[in-house]
Amino acid sequence: MVQERVFPTFQSATATVTKAEGLRLYEDMVLGRFFEDKCAEMYYRGKMFGFVHLYNGQEAVSTGVIQAMRPGEDYVCSTYRDHVHALSAGVPARNVMAELFGKETGCSKGRGGSMHLFSAEHRLLGGYAFIGEGIPVATGAAFQSKYRREAMGDASSDQVTAAFFGDGTTNNGQFFECLNMAALWKLPILYVVENNKWAIGMAHERATSQPEIYKKASVFGMPGYEVDGMDVLAVRAIAQEAVARARAGEGPTLIECLTYRFRGHSLADPDEMRSKVEKEAWFARDPIKKFAAHLLEHTLASQDELKAIEKKIQTIVEEAVTFALESPEPDPKDLYKYVFADND
Prior knowledge:
Mean pLDDT: 94
Largest sheet: 5 strands, parallel
Radius of gyration: 20 Å
Oligomer: single chain
Strand content: 5-15%
Shape: globular
Number of domains: 1
Number of strands: 7
Strand order of the largest sheet: 1-2-3-7-6
Low-confidence stretches: none
CATH class: Alpha Beta
């Protein structure tokens, strides 16, 4: 039987953060958590339909990676669990919520829904319903950045791309093919594995011959790291290093973040596959509570400051729901709009 990994070796003991940075990271994580909780409420009240996959518990990954990049300039490519990636990338909560309600004011004009968030303005390359779909797209984005810079002489084209995907995806062909190309061409990309231990209902340790995903990077001659995905400072430190390498032309990095989703695979999942013992062990490592304790311990924030952030985010989320509810439905006459290129 494969020995189960729970706690990775890379912790945040040497990672540092200023007060301003710490509060920004905390606010971003709280936004993700409160937004997802509100999504669950709206779904069970019958206000939201279709498949909805929430990100609760994994906030340190999205925040740690994307906040180490240049939001609005660098590229982010997501999965079907994409709400929080979109928020970290700067897509306004009201436009994400409106998309989940299928409204015209949504970031995908109500055409995409929960699994297909997209924003050209915020360099969000999309959410994808099938696993592995986003990896080639992200690799292509990284290629065009390098091509514009080196072949076309555009010195400003130094964007880095982050491709997020789960542990189950790393057994698919796109993963291996794209890592191979990225290594050969030294593309400016971070391949971020959100290893939450479960590929829908399949435990990771039962599904792969090499459970330590970060070691697969060695096959392609690229750096691979295992990091505590419940520790935002640990994730951020590794991401900063990988982003710096990518922007300097030194190529891709594979980052395996050991994390855990606090809810079922989707809101339609009764979550009966995972043991109570396993869930409670990971609940005790809640990344938001852990980071709040760090900020308080190192006098980087007061309890009142943290509560003020939470109150601010609660207001933003409530306003996002109101905006979504009051927004118009897409007009039926625009059924074919955005399907083909518009030359007007």
